[in-house]
Design goal:
The complex is a heterodimer of chains A (about 350) and B (about 90).
Chain A lengths: L2 E7 L2 E7 L6 E6 L3 E9 L6 E8 L3 E7 L26 E7 L8 E6 L2 E5 L7 E2 L1 H4 L15 E7 L7 E6 L2 E5 L7 E2 L20 E6 L7 E5 L3 E4 L7 E2 L8 E7 L7 E8 L2 E4 L6 E4 L7 E3 L17 E3 L5 E4 L5 E4 L7 E4 L5 E8 L1
Antiparallel strand pairs in A: 1-2, 1-28, 2-3, 4-5, 5-6, 7-8, 8-9, 9-10, 11-12, 12-13, 13-14, 15-16, 16-17, 17-18, 19-20, 20-21, 20-22, 22-23, 24-25, 25-26, 26-27
Chain B lengths: L1 E4 L13 E4 L3 E2 H11 L1 H7 L10 E5 L2 E2 L9 E2 L4 E6 L5
Parallel strand pairs in B: 1-7
Antiparallel strand pairs in B: 1-2, 3-6, 4-5, 4-7
Helix pairs in contact in B: 1-2
The chains are: A mainly beta (about 350), B alpha+beta (about 90).
Chain lengths: ~350, ~90
């Protein structure tokens, strides 16, 4: 089955296809001169639907969909994601698009800047603000990092439709156990070294959270310094950074089916946002973070300086892993990261990647 | 009645037209409201959902930058020409 790799960049969307599993054909840019921070491939419909969150520096943000794998796009006349007038807020960008569970085939979630969650019940054509999170009493204390203040992670529970988790920078992890009616922080054990109280109830700068597909109660979090695992669906967290060369970075990705396998791309530190030792290496754990190993076969040998952003790493459905760099290269592995090959080079800064068999 | 000049990057929203005519006047906001009635996607490229002009979009009323005359409250006389132009920005 052909693989489609959607590559969101600072200047448009590129679509890479690998019809026979050998070589890549790249089209684009789609939505030229827009920053594409969010892409999703919704495989629930009979024909997979692509969803793209793009932002023009001049003409603002929007969401478009394609039901023919990017041959044509539809964008509603009315803004698909917009804050109601009484909020006084305006959409900065859509940071995350996530199809809901199989029980709700038309539900799509959107995480946005400023930090908010939106829900679509028509497959991503129009979205409604989730008021319960917007009205949370903590909201006024959520902060903004360098990338802005955003809900960048949305993780519906795959087996329990009442549970959903979001993560924001800054603010941390919030969980709902009543289908989004109410929200509680889930940051116990995550250190916020940049705050006077280093163990606050909320306010952490979580960069990305991934759910273990084999054990959906288990989550992994790459923090603004700190790599953590939760074994209780995000209530409490313990460090799994001991085997990594650095606890700083942005992406963290879990294997789509095998429990305990997770990948990350460590950077030196907050103040040194380069790959550790200036080497291009992905790190993998096969035991839920107890031990880590570097992976670099097929990756550049020469000194390597660009970082990998929070959504610029993903896994496909068959042990295939992908990441894109701020220098515009995209790499793929079809063996869990043991070896890598180049998908595309000389693209604009890669902001996000998503892969699916289509 | 007011004439609105549409910049090249936005003409795809209006079938390629470079000039539109709207039955509105009074203020820039009123003209943009009228645009939104007929071409909502064009209008939301110019203003956000709270009605504020997007930061890097400029609107000129008979050659004057409306930001120097009250922004969306800037007066627009019947028969005026309202020109929308993206500002010089980006990298």
């Amino acid at each position: 089955m052909p693989t489609l790799l959607a590559i969101g960049t600072a200047k448009g969307l590129f679509l890479a296809t690998s019809p026979g599993g050998r070589g890549w054909e790249v089209s684009g840019p789609h939505f030229p001169m827009t920053g594409v921070y969010a892409v999703a491939v919704d495989r629930r419909p009979a024909t997979p639907r692509l969803l793209v969150g793009m932002t023009s520096s001049h003409f603002g943000p929007s969401v478009a969909t394609s039901d023919d794998l990017g041959a044509s796009w539809a964008e509603p006349e009315q803004a698909p994601v917009a804050f109601p007038a009484d909020t006084g807020a305006s959409l900065g960008r859509v940071w995350q698009l996530v199809p809901g569970g199989a029980d709700a085939p038309d539900v799509v979630w959107a995480g946005t800047e400023p930090s908010a969650l939106f829900r679509s019940e028509d497959g991503g054509r129009s979205f409604t603000l989730v008021r319960s999170l917007w009205d949370h009493p903590h909201r006024e204390q959520w902060g903004a990092g360098f990338g802005g203040q955003a809900v960048h992670t949305v993780l519906p529970h795959p087996r329990d439709p009442s549970r959903i988790l979001v993560a924001m920078s800054t603010g941390g992890v919030y969980r709902s156990e009543d289908a989004g009616e109410s929200w509680s922080p889930g940051n116990t054990g995550i250190r916020a070294y940049f705050m006077p109280d280093e163990w606050p109830e909320f306010g952490q700068c979580v960069h990305k959270v991934a759910r273990d597909a084999g054990n959906p109660e288990r989550l992994y979090a790459q923090n603004h310094h700190g790599v953590y695992r939760s074994d209780d669906d995000g209530r409490t967290w313990t460090s799994i950074a001991a085997g990594l060369p650095s606890d700083f970075g942005f992406p963290i990705v879990a294997h789509p089916s095998r429990a305990g396998t997770v990948w990350t791309f460590p950077l030196v530190a907050d103040s040194q946002r380069y790959p550790v030792d200036h080497r291009c290496r992905v790190f993998r754990s096969a035991d839920a973070g107890d031990k880590w190993e570097p992976l670099s076969v097929g990756l550049p040998d020469e000194p390597f300086h660009p970082s990998v952003l929070r959504d610029a790493m993903c896994a496909g459905g068959a042990g295939d892993v992908y990441f894109g760099t701020r220098s515009g290269e995209v790499y793929a592995s079809r063996d869990d990261g043991d070896s890598w090959s180049l998908v595309a080079a000389h693209l604009p800064d890669v902001l996000c990647v998503r892969a699916a068999e289509v | 009645m007011v004439t609105v000049l549409v910049p090249g990057p936005l003409r795809g929203e209006v079938g390629g037209a470079s000039r539109l005519t709207v039955e509105a006047a009074g203020s820039v906001g009123a003209v943009l409201d009228a645009l939104a009635d007929s071409w909502p996607r064009l209008a939301r490229r110019i203003r956000d959902e709270q009605g504020e002009l997007r930061r890097y979009v400029n609107v000129y009323v008979d050659g004057e930058d409306c930001r120097h005359a009250g922004g969306v409250a800037a007066p627009v006389a019947d028969g005026a020409e309202v020109q929308v132009l993206p500002s010089v920005a980006g990298g």
